[in-house]
Amino acid sequence: MNPSQEHQGRLFRFVEFCIRRRVLVVAVIALITALMAVLAVRIEIKTVFDDLLPANHPYIKVHEQFKQNFGGSNLVSIMLEVEDGDIFKPAVLSKVQKVTQDLQYIEGVNQFQIISLAAKKAKEVRASTEGIDIKPLMWPSVPQSAEDVAKLKEAVLHNPLIYGAYVSRDLKAALITVDFYDKEVRYDRIFDQIGKIARSVEGDGVAVRVVGEPMLYGWVNHYLPETGRIFLITIAALIVLLFFTARTWRGTLLPLLAGVVSAVWALGAARLAGLHLDPLVIVVAFLISARAISHSVQLVIHYDDELAKGAPDSTAAAKAAMTALFKPGMLGVIADAGCMIVVILTPIPLLQKVAVIGTVWVSTIAVSACVLTPVLLSWIRKPNSYAHPVNIQPVLRWLLQRCIGVATTRARYVVIALTAVLFVASGIYAFNLKVGDANPGSPILWGDSRYNLDAAAINQRFAGADRMFVVVSGAGTDSLKEPKALATMAAFQAFMENQPEVGGTVSMADLVPVMKRILREGNPRYEEFGANSGENGEILYLFTSGTDPGDIDRFVEPQYKDASVTIFFRDHKGETIRTAVSRVEEFAQKHPDSPVRFQLAGGLIGVLAAANEIILAKQIESIALALLVLVICCAVAYRSLAAGMFFMVPVLLSNTLTFAFMAWMGIGMNVNTLPIAALGIGLGVDYAFYVVDEIREELHKGNTLFGSIERSLLSAGRGVLVTAATLITSVVIWYFSSIRFQAEMGMLMALWLFISAASSLLLMPALVVVLKPAFVFKRGVRKQAETGVQATATA
Amino acid sequence: MTVNKVWRLLSAVMPFAVIGGLLYAGIFIKPASVGASVAPPVLAPRDAFYGVAMPADGVIWAVGRGGKIVRSDDDGRKWLLQPAATDANLQSITAWDAERAVVVGNDGTVLQSADGGRSWQAAVGLPAEAAGRKLIRVRRSADGRVYAVGEFGLVLSATGFGAAWDSIGKREDVGWNDLAARENTLILAGEFGRIRRSGDGGRNWQDVASPVKSSLLGVAFSADGRLAVAVGLDGVVLLSTDDGQSWRAVSSGTREHLFAVTAHNAGWAAVGDKGLLLRAPADAQTWEVRRLAENSYAWHADIEAHADRLYLAGATLSAVGQDNKLEQFK
Question: Which of A151, A514, A523, A570 should we substitute to test contact with B (largest number of B Cβ atoms within 10 Å)?
Answer without folding.
Answer: A523
